[in-house]
Design a protein that fits this description.
Blueprint: H1 6-19, H2 21-24, E1 26-37, E2 43-48, E3 53-58, H3 60-63, E4 75-85, E5 90-100, H4 105-120, E6 137-142, H5 147-159, E7 164-169, H6 177-190, E8 196-201, H7 215-222, E9 228-232, H8 240-244, E10 247-248, H9 252-259, H10 263-296, H11 299-302, H12 304-348, H13 350-355, E11 360-362, E12 369-370, E13 381-385, E14 390-394
Parallel strand pairs: 3-5, 6-7, 6-8, 8-9, 9-10
Antiparallel strand pairs: 1-2, 1-4, 2-3, 4-5, 11-12, 11-13, 13-14
Length: 400
């Protein structure tokens, strides 16, 4: 019996597994669990079914080619080879491809990106810019050899001649297409005087239209300071760029029609507006003339003195009435006040005291009033004033 180290044992088992042609290229289906995306770009997860599980590693060189983002609970089919990780002595599946079970990988990626960008607010109507009514300079980002660019330029020039068209030629499918499209949008934003941008291409499969479903294109549209029309594929095709763009056209031809109005139709519309404006002005002037005639025929203008005299008489009568009311009111108040003062004065008057039986004793000339009997001598003459009349008296005797 040979004694082996742990490392030798793991290496031997690894060599046996790697010699099995079936395990060198195997497809395995199961459910993703314990998924982890490392900072290096490698994917680590477990692929399981109802009975057992196997560890899976997908290195960055392969994971970056997967168009969707794996999630726990997702059913997938993985192609790869089986080997042993010597350090842990565990066998695992080294994945090279991965497809969602039952649903296309591109469709899953489309839905995932659509959901994420919607949650970030890139699809909000409030973020969309209004298209210019009549752009002078139009930038088109598309393939220079496709039918789409020919259709768009012909329609724009036919509908309104004289519009300047700036073509940014790009690949619209393939690995480099997303970067080229995004760069084209950025170049048009850096140029001066571009009023509108159209991006798009003709119809095709989901794979062929995939460049317009990428995040880099979506964010370049969202960050564009110039309004963008997305015109990708046919009427039934819908891409992420359609949701982010300021306007979506069903086809490239429809985008060209949306970009500029038809000059002949616009001239007809302007002529209609001129007729309506002239008719409206005629009606307005006629109405003003009627009002002017009514004003000129009014009594105020035909006999202005009558109105002035009448108003003056009304004012005279009104003020005379107010003056009479004021005088009567003032007299009544003053009479009432005089009566109150007279009553107070009567209460304090010496005549009222005389009426109650009292008298006033004065010298015969009335210049001095006696209030003390001691100030009189016997034989002196005094006047005694009563309530009615005065007595001329001689003092015969006095009592202190």
């Amino acid at each position: 019996m040979r004694l082996m180290s742990v490392q030798e044992l793991n290496r031997y088992i690894k060599s046996l597994i790697e010699k099995d042609y079936l395990l060198a290229n195997v497809w395995v289906k199961g459910e993703v669990s314990n998924f982890k995306s490392a900072s290096s770009g490698h994917y680590y997860f477990t692929l399981k079914d109802e009975f057992t599980c196997v560890k899976v590693v997908m290195f960055r060189s392969k994971s970056r080619l997967v168009p969707f983002y794996p999630e726990n609970g997702m059913a997938v089919t993985v192609r790869g080879y089986v080997s042993v990780f010597e350090r842990d002595g565990a066998y695992q599946l080294y994945a090279e491809e991965m497809d969602p079970g039952g649903t296309g990988a591109l469709y899953i990626a489309f839905q995932q990106l659509k959901t994420r960008l919607r949650q970030e607010g890139l699809f909000e109507p409030a973020q969309k810019k209004a298209l210019p009514l009549l752009p002078s300079r139009i930038g088109i980002v598309t393939s220079p050899t496709g039918a789409a660019v020919r259709d768009m330029t012909e329609i724009i020039r036919r509908r309104w001649p004289g519009r300047e068209i700036f073509l940014v030629p790009v690949q619209v499918q393939g690995e480099s297409a997303p970067q080229e499209i995004a760069r084209g949008i950025q170049l048009l934003n850096q140029a001066k005087g571009i009023d509108l941008i159209i991006i798009g291409r003709g119809g095709g499969s989901l794979e062929e239209l995939w460049a317009f479903n990428t995040e880099i294109v979506a964010r370049s549209i969202y960050e564009s300071g110039i309004p963008v029309i997305s015109a990708v594929g046919h009427e039934t095709d819908t891409t992420i760029s359609d949701f982010v763009a300021d306007a979506r056209a069903a086809t490239p031809s429809a985008a060209a029609e949306m970009a500029v109005p038809d000059k002949k139709e616009m001239e007809k519309y302007i002529q209609t507006l001129r007729i309506r404006l002239a008719r409206s002005m005629d009606e307005k002037i006629a109405g003003c003339r009627q009002r002017l005639s009514a004003c000129l025929a009014s009594r105020v203008l035909t006999k202005p003195l009558d109105a002035i005299c009448g108003a003056r008489q009304q004012l005279h009568d009104y003020l005379g009435h107010r003056l009479a009311q004021g005088v009567r009111g003032t007299l009544e108040r003053e009479c009432n006040r005089l009566g109150v003062l007279a009553g107070r004065l009567h209460t304090l008057s010496p005549l009222a005291t005389l009426a109650r039986g009292y008298s006033i004793c004065t010298t015969p000339d009335g210049n001095f009033i006696f209030s003390d009997a001691r100030s009189l001598d016997t034989g002196a003459r005094v006047n005694v004033r009563l309530h009615i009349g005065t007595l001329n008296c001689l003092v015969e005797d006095k009592m202190d």
